[in-house]
Amino acid sequence: MQTQTILLLVAAFVGASLIALYQYVYKVKSRQKKSLLFAFLRFLSVLVVLVLLINPTFKKQTYYTVKPNLIVGVDNSASIKHLEQSEQVVQFVKQLQNNATLNDRFEVAYYSFAEGLHDSLHFSFDKKQTNISEALENLDQIYRNSIAPTILITDGNQTYGKDYQFTTRTSKQQIFPVISGDTITTTDTKIQQLNVNRYAFLKNKFPVEAILTYSGDENVKTTFEITSGNRKVYTQNVVFSSEENSKIINLTLPANTPGVAQYTARLIPVSNEKNTINNNKSFAVEVIDQKTSILVISSIIHPDLGAIKKSIESNERRSLKIVKPSQATNLDDYQLIILYQPNSRFVNVYKEIETSKKNYLTITGAHTDWVFLNRIQDKYKHEITRQTEYYLPRFNSNYSSFLLEDIGFREYPPLLGAFGSITVNSNYDPLLYRVINDIETQEPLLFTIEQDGIREGIVLGEGLWRWRVQNYLDTKNFESFDDFFGKIVQYLASNKRRSRLNTISESFYYGNSNITIKAEYFTKNYEFDRRGNLRIAVKNKETKAVQTVPMLLKNTSFEADLSNLSAGDYDFTVSVVGENISKSGSFTVLEYDVEQQFLNADVAKLKQLASNSQGKSYFTNQSELLINNLLADPRYQVIQKSREEIVSLIDWKYLLAILILLLAIEWFARKYNGLI
What we know:
Layout: H1 3-26, H2 33-54, E1 57-66, E2 69-75, H3 78-82, H4 86-98, H5 100-105, E3 107-113, E4 117-118, H6 132-142, E5 150-154, E6 175-179, E7 188-196, E8 199-201, E9 205-215, E10 220-228, E11 231-240, E12 246-254, E13 259-267, E14 280-288, E15 292-298, H7 303-313, E16 318-323, E17 336-340, H8 347-356, E18 360-364, H9 370-376, E19 380-382, E20 388-395, E21 415-418, E22 422-424, E23 428-436, E24 439-451, E25 454-460, H10 464-475, H11 479-493, E26 501-504, E27 508-510, E28 516-521, E29 534-540, E30 546-550, E31 552-554, E32 557-561, E33 568-576, E34 582-590, H12 603-612, E35 618-619, H13 623-632, E36 639-648, H14 652-672
Parallel strand pairs: 2-3, 2-5, 5-6, 6-35, 8-14, 15-16, 15-17, 17-18, 18-25, 27-34
Antiparallel strand pairs: 1-36, 3-4, 7-9, 9-12, 10-11, 10-13, 13-14, 19-22, 20-21, 20-23, 23-24, 24-25, 26-28, 28-32, 29-30, 29-33, 31-32, 33-34
Helix pairs in contact: 1-2, 2-14, 7-10, 7-11, 10-11
């Protein structure tokens, strides 16, 4: 108790005494026993009040112990089971759980991981992907402010993610890898990688690149072959040695039949080869029977033309030709016509487009003759001011003609167009709005019109090349802009009638990738309807098994994740509950399990991981050694800490009860003696 508090209590004692003596002795001028009794009761009452006001306290010191954390992360991927290590891993974890000394010394927390980190143990060993680096980073975030050595039970085989052996450079936790898997190097031939384009054109040849590897000491001879169904389409002999342990084979295959062509690449196993699963890889190519041909008509030279050509031809299924208006002939040979900054020289072009009923895209700018354009068509009219203005884009998330995402238009440079208002005289769907001097308007900058079966797109400004450059500055590639412009071209080049329900899917998926089917659902006014209740029914063509799952709303589309499907051919039907609307399609899942491509544990990386984090690596048969080393490690001692608390000397509830009791006794005593 502090000296100041003691002095206050002494002062309270003296003050209470003086008040009681003054009221019942000095003032009454009597020393009768009754007066002394009343004075004593008043003294106690005043003293209790003063003690309540002073609230005397003292410091209380308590001591407690803090145990270090011990994190146990268990690899739950399919490669553990493939390497026949699942029983050893489960047994190792049980030995940790049953060791009483270890559990008394540490706060042990168990996690499992594969494609992500899970805060519980789950020994299924069936996950198709492994990301060790992400698991380590997440554990480091959870225990960044505490001592938490990590036991990592894994084979070290990672299928995607950053190289985990370097993830510990920013971490202070020590990692103790427990290596599960065969560490003996055996003879193995493997198809390390296949590089194939997803698409090919009919009557053309498509390239295939195969990277083959070999581990072993002896010279071996084998054969690499590619089959399609029961037909062998390519074969080549391959020789490996300890020095020449990799081969790159480049070949071309013919695309003779439209549709999805499935192939199997196989490297014939050598004698005594333990793992033959990694000797086979399936792949597929979608053969397209027609290339989309696009014609750009322009009477001027402009950087936009080069950007448009690069963007469109980034997709191998499209080709583009640029001509002057006088050279524009045979428009029927093209699926889409792009009119760049039209003027009076385009008279014959517009007449032929109207006659052939072709879809087209109009791009206007500072060199556009709006007097001519207003006269030659009646779908939209622009105010004639003969001045220019810069327009910033604003994305319309409710655009409904096709699925499109905002690629960051607000950060893009402005387009240069004619100054004045635009009036659209037909139903249109705005994709981008004009922003003038940071003022958002409802006037379109880019919009589409579908009328009498003809589709037209209108861009009211030049400078698209700046958008493509900005996309590269933002992302170090042109993919977002090319995909954006490519979808516009795809929509305009198509003659399909508009539908209230559209599905988006690939013709085939690899077994190790995410299988996602998307759908767009619109109202009768062709506005995206977020209220739709969509379901997808997927049927295996071979087994006839059907599974139906709901589609979830995500941004401006509905999605269904079907990544749990096994290899095979499937039909699907997307339907709207409560509506007589449905769309069907089909796709193929190619067999591929990346977790079965590994033959051994990655000992070198796990040992490097332990070294970088100041830990040590162990094997699954060294559980006792690991436990003993952890218990003996001076870095992981139980820490005793103290906590200082300020505690009241007397509980105010008891003082208040005593005060009430004293005042009651005094009142009844005075009442009994006729003093009240």
